[in-house]
Fold these 3 entries.
Entry 1:
Amino acid sequence: MVSVAIDLVQLPMIPAFSFGLALSAEKGVAELETRSMADVSWRPPRACSDYWEEWKNCKSIRNRFHYYYTYGESPSCQQWKADYLNCREWEKKMNVESRAALCESERKRLEERQSYSLVWEMRKRPPPDWHLPLDYRKPNE
């Protein structure tokens, strides 16, 4: 029989999804943390690379010019970077605070996007004069 020694200091966090347990190797001591299945299998709303790409796009010269032209001020890209760092923290250490911060950030982003009203009013039926030529109101010259 062959026995294999495992150096626990070099082991990353290995989630054991089938048992709802996570094997953590912090400070050389193996800890068996009991977590619910929802905690272990939770994924961020977006991939971490998406947060990184959004941050890079926000910091680009083209976006800065467009944002300044549109709103008259420079864009604030700190939230994208904070979300990226929280996402990486969740993936590496399954930090609950990072998870909560990501959820709150995405919730605020969705609320902000839904708070804008539509530009065009939706019609229930076409206007009564829809079939007339476009210049019917001009006097004939």
Note: DSSP finds five helices and three strands in the chain.
Entry 2:
Amino acid sequence: MSSSAKKVKKAVLRRLSVFSGIGLSGIDRQTSWPAVSPSSSRFDQWRYEQPVDITNPLAIRRTLDRRVTFDSVWHSRHKTEDDFAEITDDADANKKTERKTRCSEFSLLTSSISENDTHNHSYVNTIFKNAELNHNDVFVSAFGKKGTNAGDYQDAKHITCFSNGELLITDLINDRLQICSNVTSSVTIFSPDEIKQPWATAVTTDGNIAVTSCKERCVKLFNIKGEFIDEFGQKYFVRPTGLAVDNYGNFIVCDSVIDKVSMFDKNGTFIRFLGNSFIQEECFNSPRYVCVSITGEIIVSDCGHHKIKVFDSDGNFIRSFGSFGNGDRQLKCPYGVSTNKYGDIFVSDHYNSRISMFSREGVFIRHVVTSEHGLVHPQGLTISHDLYMYISHGHLKANEILVYKLSDALDYEYSNIIHYV
């Protein structure tokens, strides 16, 4: 490094503004960055070295108490040793058993996170102001951090919401699924040998759990206890990603390498490919996620084409919307897709770092959450029947889950929607 470059570097370092929020409540500005630990990523180390503009809303962070969910939404519980269960394979007994494990770092519903632990979280340099959310949408909570312990994530790709309010979250790098309970304040780790690089999950009509395994190139079925049942699709997949189950029990599976979206019946028998590879509007380029709307339409995020494509329940193409860009009606590599009870379509606009809302016809309505609220590269997205929205996000890999309560108001004034079906 030349002497002039060293002088510039020293001048920049002298101008760095550092923040912390120790002992403050609500939304506070930082006066010092937490120390960078050996486990911090190179991106985190770079970020901590950058100057912070105090006029920039992204320089405001949530204090630790914002990680604790509100009593009005979740039931407060005290964490105990019995709150954590890991599904393991007992070789001696040749059957699945539950092993209770202690994990002092998991804090889905408890405030066990210390000030020294904040550097592991992607929210350190973000803002969450409910006043900035439109239509009475409310930020509820955030949980998870980078790691391998219970409640940690290395790459949370997908979120499934059970009817009882529990969340099933896939972790591609940790090779496991985690069920987070809002009733018992616990997390159950599914890590049988059969799960390798899980991307997405879906609940079958029989109440079992279907998982796309990227490494083994198939869809695997487990019961709710984590016991392996069956698998299918090895002849059709190279890298299965998004997964959904329709009202008839059929499986819809994306493959981001061969650019196909396949439909299988409830027994795992191949039915058809969606779309037409010879028609530009119907072909795919790296499809990542899929969901089924309340009306039975199949909605696919066509990541490479920066579009959302909609098919009927038989797999016939209906419409598409979106184009490359950062405008209101544009997308940059859409990831997770989900719908609410009105049929509105919500999209994780990955590289625009926002959640965008469209009508079922593809008419843009509004951006629900953006980078101004601290959202960074969203991936998994799901909306529960009672309008709670769950998002997995993170700078390089998704390691935090955000929870929002969406407004139940219709958005007629923001589009030319005439009615909902």
Note: The first strand starts at residue 27 and ends at 29.
Entry 3:
Amino acid sequence: MFKVPTATRSSFSRRQQPYTATSRARYHSERRAGETPKAAQPSQSDRGSGVSLSIISFSCGTVDSVALTTLTFNCDGLVGRYVNIFLPGHDKVLTLCEVQIFTSKLPTGKNVALGRSVTQSSTDPGAGAEGAIDGNSDSDFKHGSCARTRKSKHPWWRVDLNESYNVSDVRITNRADCCSDQLQGAEIRIGDSLENNGNSNRLCGIVDSVSGTTLTFNCGGIVGRYVNIVIPGPDKILTLCEVEIFGSELPYLHGKGNLALGASPTQSSTDEGAAAERAIDGNSDNDFRHGSCARTRKSKDPWWRVDLNETYRISDIRITNRADCCSDQLQGAEIRIGDSLKYEGNFNRLCGIVESVSWTTLTFYCGRIVGRYVNIVIPGPDKTLTLCEVEIFGSELPYLHGKGRLNFPKRLSFNTAFSRRCCTRFVSEHEPQCVFMKSLRHSVHRLSFTSSGDHMLIKTSHTPNDYTPDEEHHPAIRVLT
């Protein structure tokens, strides 16, 4: 039976115990009772001693003891399609009551490292940095497809992706013909800074086991242009036979860029000059002390809002959280989008909730929610909202080329028979009242009415004379010139 957990490991920093929690609890409870653990009593289970577990040609582990009924092996991310369990030797019987295999899917998508600019701290003759992104994962150094530095202090390798990506996974192929332990302790770092040659950027993972040739690290969407691999310490050699980087381009709007830039922000309160405008100043510095973050006072349900000045279809929102301290304050924040300012806009449609602050930069896909106002609010008492940058990406609503929009007020024909069902009010030279239409003299392609944060798009016939709406089910609006 195969069981695949929903969560993936972010690195190989956690070592599993040699047996499961269930068997461990049972084992120790029997020991405390003064009994010999049942699994340790001599039995025919001894026939399983020496069993080897392998994936492709790599060994994951060997059963050295059958004192416990349930045995767990940490395979450290070995990559393979087939899992074999076999007993070497003659006259053996292999009995398996249950085999459970826990995996994560290999990263999919395009390897964004191919064809990029690479460099390294030093180069061992014939082993240039380009060897690690040549598309060849041959792990035999003698075949000439690996990058290697000279022995030095803190050797590093870096690839420039030319632009920032949301990096989801990094896969490293280590040397297998010898010396694989040289990669032990290597750090994978991702970011946009070249300070300290990029080796101080955000940490994705650490190589704490080299039992497998191919190592995959889940980076959780860290944003960065540079990916570094560095081994801290003196007298180190860094060898990389292949580095594959998987991620997605940052969201953007053709011709518009970040919609929040130049918009009008406000917030529920302001702490020590940390005004709302700081969250859309184009500076994603996440150190609050540098003066580029917005912050409210501690209060109930603190919120921040930006007015985009017109309605957009919002596709993505990227938030840069504070990193110098207190990042957990953003936990539970809600991102809301809509056209209503009722309750300050904090009950508009929900785009997402900050459920984890493990990363400084958080990106939310909003599914093209339509709205003019974008709110970020933290529900609850005694909360402080800090935002170092908010970037909003989307597209304009469709319009009719060459015609523009009809400008109201116009003379309107009202049918107030439907007023009990009407939730939209319109202001013209008449008193505000519900607007419907029964026939058309213009071919109106779109009318947008705002009510409680929702949009109603009404498309009409291109041949108005042929259009006869059913007054009971299809009320319409008549525009007279």
Note: The chain has one helix and 25 strands.
